[in-house]
Write a structure and sequence with these properties.
Length: 226
């Protein structure tokens, strides 16, 4: 089976790609760049890094800009998937959905309409087990967005490691935060993964934060040997 991956550059879509690659051929990445920072469908922090990640993976990238409005972003997504069908002859689409029925149902409807398989390797998996798997398998992941109490700007740029997972687990128990950020509490950016041929080095960044909301913006980065 030839698959295209809905790819944001965050931990979920990257892990889903790796899971799907165990049983199928990944032939392209599909990235929607939303101009709406409040989009329910698409991850936004550091979305431009997907071009470096695609190069690191050795995969072509279909990149489509969307206004991010509910009535049009799904149409834009479908157009990008149709392009993947035409250009790379995909048989299905991989998503990084874990708990979001909103995303799952809408992507599934598009796939059904286009007669494509909708592959969801992470769907309903235990969230703590998923983030632990990222660390165990050597994914290098940083926190690139925070959007919930009691998170603050000190979280931005932190590496996802065992200590951070322990802290997230504590916050989940005390405040109900999703360990995997499924409630939109955190966003992430992957700088290295097992299938990356090279890793990403951040050369310059800035932090924009206020209260319990903020983003880590990668301003300059390049690929380096692993």
């Amino acid at each position: 089976m030839r698959l295209g991956v809905l790819f944001s550059g965050g931990k979920d879509s990257t892990l889903a790609l790796h899971k799907a690659a165990e049983n199928a051929k990944i032939v392209c990445l599909i990235t929607l760049v939303s101009e709406n920072k409040e989009s329910f469908m698409f991850h936004t922090p550091n979305i431009d890094i997907t071009s470096l990640q695609a190069e690191a993976l050795g995969l072509p990238l279909i990149r489509k800009v969307t206004k991010g409005k509910p009535e049009t972003e799904l149409k834009d997504l479908e157009e990008a998937i149709v392009q993947a069908v035409q250009d790379f002859k995909i048989d299905g689409v991989v998503t990084g959905a874990i708990e979001s029925a909103y995303q799952y149902q809408r992507i599934k409807c598009i796939c059904d309409r286009l007669k494509l398989s909708c592959v969801n390797p992470l769907w309903k998996r235990d969230q703590k087990a998923l983030v632990e798997e990222l660390v165990t398998k050597g994914f290098e992941v940083i926190i690139s967005g925070i959007f919930a109490y009691p998170l603050d700007e000190t979280w931005l740029g932190k590496w996802l490691d065992k200590d951070l997972i322990s802290h997230l687990t504590h916050l989940s128990e005390e405040f109900g935060l999703s360990i995997a950020g499924e409630g939109g509490e955190i966003e992430t950016t992957v700088l290295d993964a097992p299938l990356f041929r090279k890793k990403i080095k951040v050369l310059d960044f800035s932090i924009e934060a206020k209260g319990h909301s903020g983003v880590y913006i990668i301003k300059k980065a390049l690929l380096i040997p692993k």
